[in-house]
Design a protein that fits this description.
The chain is of the alpha/beta class and 382 residues long. It contains 12 helices and 14 strands. The structure holds pyridoxal-5'-phosphate (PLP).
C-alpha cells in the first residue's frame, strides 16, 4: 500500500514508552507532563451539574458563550487585555487543538515556521504534519537567552510565522517584556504571524510575571494566543483550551477547528467557565504551590550531580544527565529508571541538536509526598 510520507519520520514521543516502562517496574513517573493533582472542587461540581442539566449536544464552533465570556473576563482582569468574547475568542480542543487549528487556518503547506529549540514536540510535529517547514533557532542555557541576530537570520521570504512558548516547556523560560518587544519588532518588520502558547501562564516563579505577547504594543493584530484549562485546573483529559486572535483570524480558526474536532466537550466547557470565574487568589496560588515542588526536585537533582537548569516557569526541569555516563539521553532515561525507579524524558524529544542527548526532562506536577520520595531516590544515586 502506498501511503503519504509527511509523517514518516515522526513517532509518538518516547514519553509514552517511558510511561509504559515506568508502570512495568512500579516507578515514579516524572516523565509525562501530566498533573495528577485533584481537580478544584467548584470545577468538578460544575462538570457534574452541566451533565445533570443535559448540556450534552454539540457546542457552537466558537465555543459556548459562557466560556468565551469567562475567558475574555479572565484576560481582562489578569492582563488588562480587552478582548471581544464574540469575535476574538475560539474554544478549542485543548491548546493542542488550538495550535493545530490555528496553523491549519492561517498558514499554508511549504511555509517556513520558526520554532525555538528546545521546542515542544507537538508544535514541531504539527508544523511538519501540516506540510510546513520548521526552522529552529536555539535558546542558550542556562538562562535560555534568545540570539536575536540568529532569529533575524532565520527569517526568509518564505517565513510566515514564529511560534513562542512562554512560560516554556521543556525549559521553563519566561519571556521578558524586552524580549517580547524585540521579537515583536522583527515580526512587524517582516510581516509575520506569532502563535504563542501560554498554557502555563499561571505558573511562574520568584515573583516573575507572565506577560502575554498580545499585550505588547502593536502585537494584538498579529498574535494568536493559545491557552487552556488543562494545567490551570489539572484537567489534562478534559481537552478544553482556547485561542484569542483578531476577528478575521479567529473566524478562520473556528472553521478549521470545526473541521478537525467539531467542538471541545460541551459540559466541560461549562465547567471551565465556572473555573475561570474563581477568585484571583486561586490563580495566584498556583505559582507558590509549584515553586515548592520545583525546589524539591531541583535540590535533589543538584545533589545527585544531575545539574538542573532551574526553570522560571511551567512545571518541568531540564537536567544535565552526563553523570549517568550514557551515550544517549534515551539510554540515560532507562538507566535512571533501572537504578532509581524514576522515569524522565529524553532531552532528544525536544531537540534536533545533539545537545539534547545530554539532557533529561523531569515533570514536577506531582503530589509533594511522591516528589519527596523521588528526591530521596535521586540523592541515593549520589
Ligand atoms: N502546550 C504546551 C507547551 C504543553 O506543554 C502542553 C502539555 O504538556 C500543552 C500545550 C497541552 O495543552 P492542552 O492539554 O491544552 O492541549
Amino acid at each position: 500500500m502506498r501511503i503519504g510520507s509527511r509523517l514518516a519520520n515522526a513517532a509518538v514521543s518516547d514519553i509514552r514508552a517511558m510511561t509504559r516502562a515506568c508502570d512495568a517496574v512500579g516507578g515514579i513517573n516524572l516523565g509525562q507532563g501530566v498533573c495528577d493533582l485533584p481537580t478544584p472542587e467548584p470545577v468538578a461540581r460544575a462538570a457534574h451539574a452541566a451533565i445533570d442539566a443535559g448540556k450534552a449536544v454539540y457546542a457552537p464552533p466558537e465555543g459556548v458563550p459562557a466560556l468565551r465570556e469567562a475567558i475574555a473576563r479572565r484576560v481582562g482582569r489578569d492582563y488588562g487585555l480587552s478582548v471581544d468574547a464574540t469575535s476574538e475568542v475560539v474554544v478549542t480542543l485543548g491548546a493542542t487543538g488550538g495550535f493545530a487549528a490555528a496553523a491549519m487556518a492561517l498558514l499554508d503547506p511549504g511555509d517556513e515556521v520558526i520554532l525555538f529549540e528546545p521546542y515542544y514536540g507537538y508544535h514541531y510535529n504539527t508544523v511538519v504534519g501540516l506540510g510546513m517547514v520548521p526552522v529552529l533557532v536555539p535558546l542558550r542555557p542556562p538562562a535560555w537567552e534568545v540570539d536575536f541576530d540568529a532569529l533575524a537570520r532565520a527569517v526568509t521570504d518564505r517565513t510566515r510565522a514564529i511560534v513562542l512558548c512562554t512560560p516554556g516547556n521543556p525549559h521553563g523560560k519566561v519571556w521578558t517584556p524586552a524580549e517580547l518587544d524585540a521579537l515583536g519588532a522583527l515580526a512587524a518588520s517582516r510581516d509575520l504571524l506569532v502563535i504563542t502558547d501560554e498554557i502555563y501562564e499561571h505558573i511562574v516563579y520568584e515573583g516573575a510575571a507572565h506577560v502575554p505577547l498580545a499585550t505588547r504594543p502593536g502585537m494584538r493584530a498579529r498574535t494568536v494566543t493559545l491557552s487552556g484549562c488543562s494545567k490551570t485546573f489539572s484537567v489534562t483529559g478534559w481537552r478544553v483550551g482556547y485561542a484569542i486572535a483578531p476577528p478575521d483570524a479567529a473566524r478562520r480558526i473556528a472553521v478549521a477547528h470545526d473541521l478537525l474536532y467539531v467542538c471541545a466537550p460541551t459540559p466541560l466547557q461549562h465547567a471551565c467557565a465556572e473555573g475561570l470565574a474563581m477568585p484571583d487568589d486561586y490563580f495566584r496560588g498556583l505559582s507558590a504551590m509549584y515553586q515548592k515542588k520545583r525546589d524539591i526536585v531541583c535540590g535533589a537533582l543538584a545533589d545527585a550531580g544531575l545539574t538542573p537548569y532551574v526553570p522560571a516557569g511551567a512545571y518541568y526541569v531540564l537536567a544535565d544527565a552526563r553523570r549517568l555516563g550514557c551515550a544517549t539521553a534515551r539510554e540515560a532515561a532507562f538507566t535512571l529508571l533501572d537504578r532509581a525507579k524514576i522515569a524522565a524524558v529524553s532531552g532528544a524529544s525536544f531537540y534536533r541538536d545533539p545537545v539534547g542527548e545530554t539532557l533529561l526532562r523531569f515533570c514536577f506536577a506531582k503530589d509533594d509526598d511522591l516528589l519527596e520520595e523521588a528526591a530521596r531516590r535521586l540523592r541515593a544515586l549520589g
